[in-house]
Specification:
Number of strands: 4
Number of helices: 7
Strand content: 5-15%
Shape: elongated
Largest sheet: 2 strands, antiparallel
Strand order of the largest sheet: 1-4
Length: 153
């Protein structure tokens, strides 16, 4: 997958050329900080773009939707908890991922693991609380393939 900073020389960015040199999503992100409304000068603008670039390169999935991040985390099709698939995620991110998992359940891409009586099977998460185990379903892989997010497909 290409990265939105590929081919951008940040040191060449100016107020006159940032719209042509940056992808439109990034140009819009920068624009609100430029004069007359904003207070950036050109050096600050370049530092801001560099900070965004460093952050995105540190986390290659940061520009991806949470649904796709969740899909990729479960691409091995093994049932697991969100906590174990995202061990470094902070609590607010884990909450958002659980909300996204509910959306993926409604769309037929995930399910919660249940016993023969239909009761949820849970296991102890990283923080010691009992958490739900999610089971990815075949539709999830089809979505990843359609979006060309699988390396082998």
């Amino acid at each position: 997958m290409t990265h939105r900073f590929d081919g951008i020389n940040i040191s060449e960015l100016t107020f006159d050329n940032y719209q042509e040199k940056l992808p439109s999503s990034l140009a819009k992100q920068v624009e609100k900080f430029l004069p007359p409304e904003g207070s950036f000068d050109e050096n600050i603008m370049r530092r801001y773009v560099q900070s965004i670039r460093d952050f995105e390169l540190e986390d290659p999935n940061s520009s991806m939707t949470l649904a796709n991040r969740l899909r990729l985390a479960f691409q091995d099709m093994q049932p697991e908890t969100i906590c174990s698939r995202f061990p470094n995620a902070d609590l607010p991110l884990k909450r958002r991922l659980r909300c996204v998992a509910e959306y993926l359940i409604r769309s037929g891409e995930f399910d919660k693991v249940k016993d023969d009586n239909g009761k949820l099977i849970k296991k102890r998460g990283i923080l010691g609380k009992m958490v739900v185990i999610y089971q990815p379903l075949p539709k999830m892989l089809l979505i990843l393939q359609k979006q060309k997010l699988l390396k082998n497909g």
